[in-house]
């Protein structure tokens, strides 16, 4: 017990030392929220990483940058005072609207497509552009559609994945072929919202049904009903932490909370399985809320804070997003969850350096590890932007 108190005190001192001169306010006020989120996004756009960007995760079309670009497109729909739309719009054009490479983990390839969908929704062109076209006759496509072809590569990939990838009968991650399906919890965030959104855009209900089926297959394979948390993948089900607790990765569960929230936003109100998503969201958040540390953060291992002492802001960011998102949609009781949500937002703002960089982001990985305040990655800033968007929405509606 004494050791635990010392570790907690040490983390508190380090956080305050690193961010002692922070200029950002964590007030639940739209002006303050816009300042810190815009600065964090602006810093990230000027410092897009190249490390970890390879053929399986290419820059600007791979999953990591795709998560960030899609989150920025959501934020810019609310506040485009820094003209982020021009920034990601140029990237989309330079991408030629393509998704990621056909990687071993194809769910990752379509994370960027939320941005393409947002661009189209902000300036929709005639509905018939989503019908099948001869992809290789690019001149014809440009003439017919005035150069507006952002949806076609995604639609082709969604169709391809639906047709060819659900060909395994289990989701054991250890078998490489199984990774064509959503056999790791991150995949829910990368793919499920894209299928749900494009079902709305195109009117193709098959996308929604495919998403729904695959989502609940992943749930059956990876959800621990006792702990109300997801394993990252099947390799972790039998593993234990140093304290003999089960291994539940912070960001992995953050991906799931983010996925559920975004899917619900894209589902029709009368969708027959909508309540399954809302029930799962409420069940998970009731558990996650109890795991917040005294400084407002969550860690890379959700059940072993003594080993993994440092806060982690990609997990914390998605949980903060989930808290405010749930409160705003009346899915989480305000009296119970608002104090937790405020504490979480204060913690996230405290992790932003003076120059706008969000610190304490775990690098690309799949398991718990200790990190430092200098660590940053784009998906951490993405989670922060989504959280800020929901805090701003709350501030606007509760003046």
Automatic annotation (TrEMBL):
Q: Name one Pfam family in it.
A: Glyco_hydro_88
Q: Which domain of life is it from?
A: Bacteria
Signal peptide extent: 1-20
For this entry, the protein name equals Rhamnogalacturonyl hydrolase
Q: Listed GO molecular functions?
A: unsaturated rhamnogalacturonyl hydrolase activity
- Keyword Nucleus, does the record have it? no
User: Under which EC number(s) is this enzyme classified?
Assistant: 3.2.1.172
Give the source species.
Answer: Proteiniphilum saccharofermentans
What sort of enzyme, by top EC class, is this? hydrolase
Q: Which keywords label this protein?
A: Glycosidase, Hydrolase, Signal
Q: Name one GO biological process term.
A: carbohydrate metabolic process
